Amino acid sequence: MNAKKWDKVATATLYTIAGIIVLILASLLVYILVRGLPHVSWHFLTGKSSSYQAGGGIGIQLYNSFFLLVVTLIISIPLSLGAGVYLSEYAKKGRMTNFIRTCIEILSSLPSVVVGLFGYLIFVVQFEYGFSIISGALALTVFNLPQMTRSVEDSLRNVHHTQREAGLALGISRWETVLHVVIPEALPSIVTGIVLASGRIFGEAAALIYTAGQSAPALDWSNWNPLSVTSPISIFRQAETLSVHIWKVNSEGTIPDATQVSAGSAAVLLVVILIFNLSARTIGKKLHSKLTSA
């Protein structure tokens, strides 16, 4: 065979492999949606879950998932942004910087179960937060901080060096250049990384089993005291999330319609994660177009 024929064979092989992977992923998504969406209704999305009777919903679990996501992002975004700015703009090449990057790589490769056990020992037991939203949020911060930090650092590094030189040439300080020039230029990529991390946080289960708890107490929507365990805005109450609920329903099997509840919950979880992933690129493009047109 000549080079052109080998090129065609290699191209066809790569397209075939890519097609098989896409087909497997699409089949999995379609299977989950077709199996679960018929069981999804307004009552299912807003109703209370049941431990022993059929017909329960996922309202509290769905709210807990979004509330835990918000608390986690409030903690994670400032930390990851600060770490990313330091590593990209201020850290000098050396052993210390290499050690920090190595630690980030190690943390990003840890299984979520290990992070959950770490969160249980530190936040639940040592800090005495108990099974609570704050324990789960701190554990998820440890779990997602390496990825978010690396995303912020890469976004800042992709900003061309002439942008920094232009800011310094105007007489503004290095920090002002980073704050008013570099970060706004990298903002679309940073936001995209945050949205993608949000989908990962929303679908996490293993780390939350040991930290946020496996029960979803009824919420008193008239009680807005953040220290009350029945308040919807309390971070010190147990909060079974949607992903943990799916695991619990399948592992315990005490609900007569466990299969339907599990399938419907999985479909809702998948739809929300798909929305996060699909909206990430859209938000990034819109922010980029706004900044370039301004």
Structural class: mainly alpha
Number of helices: 11
What fraction, in percent, of the residue positions are helical? over 70%
Could you spell the SSE succession in H and E letters? Answer: HHHHHHHHHHH
> How many beta-strand runs?
0
Which term fits the overall shape?
globular
How far apart the termini lie comes to 55 Å
Query: Mind telling me the C-alpha Rg?
Result: 23 Å
Oligomer: single chain
CATH superfamily: MetI-like
What name is given to the CATH topology? MetI-like fold
Please report which band the strand proportion falls in: under 5%, 5-15%, 15-25%, 25-35%, 35-45% or over 45%.
Answer: under 5%
CATH class: Mainly Alpha
Mean pLDDT: 87
Low-confidence spans: pLDDT under 50, at least 5 residues? none
Can you describe what's shown?
One of its GO terms (biological process) is phosphate ion transmembrane transport. It is a multi-pass membrane protein. The chain is mainly alpha-helical and 294 residues long. It has a single domain, classed as MetI-like fold, CATH 1.10.3720.10. It contains 11 helices and no strands. Helix 5 packs across helix 6, helix 7 packs antiparallel against helix 8 and helix 8 runs antiparallel to helix 11.
Brief description of this entry?
This protein is mainly α and 294 residues long. The protein is built from eleven helices and no strands. The chain has a single domain, classed as MetI-like (MetI-like fold).
Architecture blueprint of SSEs:
Layout: H1 3-36, H2 42-46, H3 59-90, H4 95-108, H5 112-126, H6 133-157, H7 161-169, H8 174-202, H9 206-209, H10 242-252, H11 258-293
Helix pairs in contact: 1-11, 3-6, 3-8, 4-6, 5-6, 6-8, 7-8, 8-11, 10-11
